[in-house]
Amino acid sequence: xxxxxxxxxxxxxxxxxxxxxxxxxxxxxxxxxxxxxxxxxxxxxxxxxxxxxxxxxxxxxxxxxxxxxxxxxxxxxxxxxxxxxxxxxxxxxxxxxxxxxxxxxxxxxxxxxxxxxxxxxxxxxxxxxxxxxxxxxxxxxxxxxxxxxxxxxxxxxxxxxxxxxxxxxxxxxxxxxxxxxxxxxxxxxxxxxxxxxxxxxxxxxxxxxxxxxxxxxxxxxxxxxxxxxxxxxxxxxxxxxxxxxxxxxxxxxxxxxxxxxxxxxxxxxxxxxxxxxxxxxxxxxxxxxxxxxxxxxxxxxxxxxxxxxxxxxxxxxxxxxxxxxxxxxxxxxxxxxxxxxxxxxxxxxxxxxxxxxxxxxxxxxxx
Length: 367
Hints:
Elements: E1 2-7, H1 9-14, H2 21-38, E2 48-54, H3 59-64, H4 70-76, E3 90-96, H5 99-106, H6 113-127, H7 130-160, H8 164-168, H9 172-177, H10 184-190, H11 195-200, E4 205-210, H12 218-224, E5 229-232, H13 253-259, H14 279-290, E6 293-298, H15 307-314, E7 319-324, H16 329-340, H17 346-352
Parallel strand pairs: 1-4, 1-6, 4-5, 6-7
Antiparallel strand pairs: 2-3
């Protein structure tokens, strides 16, 4: 048997790494405003512009730089499509130019930029006729490309500040446990093996299927488990050209409607078009075809942005069991709901679920 350990951004967040989309957006906004408060001639970027006229030269350092969350920043600078006057002495005018950015900020959709992009795409197509929406689609794609560039820049900056051996230490015992053959009761229940088969069975290979762009697993793999195989399915920060960033659910009715248009720009940021060109994806398909396997989900939200890939794994006949790490019973229940969206055959799903177990609770793990 093989084992696939799915690693999501919750694993990086649990280590205290600021790799969430909210972290990225907060850093990006503060950086932009810092430019404006230092140079009054700077008035913004492709997503939004602004004007500053400040009598207080320390306004940025005192009122903006210390903000630790987007909510706190918005309390100081509400983002609206109208001028905003902070006080008698300070004047700030903000104008959002990008429909994508507006949806991300005003609707507080900070956790899934890819889904926000896809929703914007559908909204444009549904509200305008074909002759009118082409320019809107081109603008939306340009904005998404810009966000991707800025995200990669941010993750590179974060990566350089991380001491991975230190951040990984609390998780070493857990990660090492993924390299061990399951107990007899587990193999009998999920793999339908008899005592003789259980005795002869080996855990042939552990694959860490990492959806993150960081190097957070490299230290563990290199130091403690060189025989394990690390697959960064969406690329990594060292190779920006390898990064896959887009929407991954090509099974819903909205996507099918997009396919009916003879316009390649509508499908430009759909993940399924980028996977086949990657060796990692082909390797993964060969892996799930080659032998029975179980799956461990660690810090992945199981959102629809990765649906096409996750469904291929979970619904495969060789997938015998799925173990979900969580933050408690409610979290486990919510993960079951998210998992169900990746199954057409619900009966098959119920046979594969490893029930809630207290030892699978990681209080600090976020997803």
